[in-house]
Amino acid sequence: MLPHGGTGPYAHPRTGRTLTDPARRPGETEDTVPADLTPDPARKHQAARDRWPSEDVDQVPQVPSTGPSIAPSMATSPAGRISAGQPGKSRDRDAFDNPPRSTQVWKPTGVRRKEALKALGLFQRATADQLWRMLRPTDRHDRITRDTLNALKKTGLTRVETRLESGHQLWVLTEKGHKEAKLLLPKNVRISALRKLEYDDEGQPVEADGYDEHAAAVTSTAAVLTGAGYGTPLSWQTEIGHRLPYGYTQYADLTMRAPDAGVPAMLLEVDRVTEPVDDLVAKLRRYTDWFELPAPKADVNKAQAARGAAVHDFRLWSRIYPPTGREGYVPVAFVFTGKTAAQRESRMRRLEQAARTYFAGEPYPGRGAGITAVDYHQAVPVVVAELERITADPAGAAGAVWRRLGREEWQTLPEALDNPDGDRLYAAQWKEARDRRAEREVAEREAKRPGCARCGAKFTDERWQQLRQSSWPGKWDDLCEACAQESVARAEAERAAQRPAENVAAGTAAEAQTSRARGLFRRRG
Predict the structure, then answer these.
(1) Among the listed ranges 39-48, 74-83, 290-299, 391-400, which one has the minimum average pLDDT value?
(2) 124, 239, 129: which is closest to 177 by C-alpha?
């Protein structure tokens, strides 16, 4: 019920602003509308402070953050969305876009509380801006996310660990919140370690300083990808180890599973342009070594005889990660951030040159000329992206902000992971080669096909086959079937015409023989 008892626009009793009933706004739910539109009595006498940040609210300074670890709140917010703490803008009075706290009190729902607990359980530490982009990217601002964190703080489930140089407060779980998050997360999801509160010699809590810019960039990467529709916070896991037999374990900064977005699995490495390129190449080498590990109790002989996609049935990785739906191993993404755009571009080019052996694939062996398709079945699909490019694109991580190493164009992630020059091209080229070979064989066969010695017509397949299957040469083997039949008929007619004369001659000879026999008998008698 509105304070004035109606459901339409009304003037706020203290500020005089024209407001509408949020329950009547189309498409809004209890997660996105203010729970209470009445003024805060505790602040009624402090109207001048309405525009100041509340002490218990995570407010961002009124200038865009410039730290490379956090997406800037102003320059990179999608159209129509605004991070809390931005300078005021002239907007429609009915728009609930970062309203003053003294005017609007946002009600965090149980769903939002659980979302925040699970996300902090997965990523250990995050800012309200990151959680907003990750959990509720369709919200116009991060106010409800901040209020949710503050509500959890009041119940002892979260706390502010420190304030970053960018002005963002860094939130973590308390021991109580860590236990609660563990109960909410699925059993197969590993919860991050608890950030314990430390105290100084006087028993006062001290701010932690272990949160580096790399950890912030990792969380921001997961946030912008989740906000673009690549899975949910539960689609991510951090620091997953891939143990190798020579005593090394390769840890992935992030592992993503977003089958609904066309990416069943992907490993991500976040680089702030601080590691040597050789270290990035070494990571790809170790990932390749791990992908090639045989599965337990795999048949060695069958594994060696397998070709193409069948090879992966005998590999360890296929027991841990879902099928990729494409040729090759689980894709690996390098997300670069920091330094200048020129430095990031140079780094991507050097990585592309040095790591070609791991992502380039191989030509299909022994398939003849005209086959340019590439066999990617035992290659690592490697894509690169820039966090700055992602946050600047209107479509975010869903836009053409990914580049497959070995290609020049920027594409969407599914396009970059696709292999148009792989199996599909091979199937088309193989069919074309097969058709050309068949045409060539037909031409060669036609050139060898014999012709009739009489009429010159080519032998039919049946006539040719008949002569090749014959054990003895025939009188009319050099004739086509029609001419041979005609010759046979003519010979039969000639024989029929000669038969009466042959019969008379035979009768005359028989009578002469009989007469001679009788004469001989008389003489003897």
Answers:
(1) 39-48
(2) 124
The residue behind tokens 């730290």 is 67
CA nearest 440: which of 451, 432, 429, 428? 432
CA gap 60, 38 in Å, rounded? 25
Using alpha carbons, select from 239, 334, 232 the residue that is nearest to residue 282.
334
Instruction: Answer whether 91's CB lies under 8 Å from 97's CB.
Output: yes
Show Cβ contacts of residue 446 under 8 Å, excluding neighbours closer than 6 positions. 458
Which of 113, 204, 94, 201 is closest to 151 using CA atoms? Answer: 113
Q: What is the DSSP letter of 190?
A: P
Please check the confidence at residue 367 and state whether its pLDDT lies above 80. no
d(CA 484, CA 460): 13
- pLDDT, the chain, mean: 77
- 478-517 pLDDT per residue, tens: 888 888 888 888 888 878 887 787 777 777 777 777 777 6
Interacting residues of 73 by C-beta distance below 8 A, sequence separation 6+: 60, 64, 65, 83, 85, 86, 129
Q: How far apart are CA 9 and CA 2, in angstroms?
A: 10
Q: Which residue has the higher pLDDT, 50 or 79?
A: 79
d(CA 60, CA 226): 22
The rounded distance, in Å, linking the Cα atoms of 216 and 127 is 9
DSSP letter assigned to residue 233: G
Q: Which residues, 6+ apart, have CB-to-CB distance to 362 below 8 Å? A: 374, 375, 378, 379
Strands, sheet with 332-336, edge to edge from the N-terminal-most edge strand = 236-243, 249-258, 263-271, 332-336, 382-386, 403-404
Q: Tokens 């022994």 — which residue?
A: 366
pLDDT on residue 87: 38
Distance from C-alpha of 194 to C-alpha of 196, rounded to nearest angstrom: 6
Q: What integer pLDDT is reported at residue 493 of this predicted model?
A: 83
| Cβ neighbours of residue 172 closer than 8 Å, sequence gap 6 or more | 120, 124, 125, 158, 159, 160, 161, 195
Q: Which residues of 107-123 are buried (b: 16+ CB within 10 A; e: fewer)?
A: ebbeebbebbbbbbbbb
- Say which amino acid occupies 165: E
Backbone angles phi, psi at 78, to 5 degrees: -60, 160
| CA 5/CA 13 separation, integer angstroms | 13
Q: pTM of the prediction?
A: 0.68
Query: What's the pLDDT at 443?
Result: 87
Question: By C-alpha distance, which of 227, 236, 216, 262 is closest to 397?
Answer: 227
Contact 120, 175 (CB under 8 A): no
pLDDT of residue 368: 62
Ordered DSSP codes for 95-146:
--SS--TTT-EE---HHHHHHHHHHHHHHSEEEHHHHHHHH-TTSSBSHHHH
184 contacts 152 by C-beta, under 8 angstroms: no
Q: pLDDT band at residue 98, thresholds of 50, 70 and 90?
A: very low
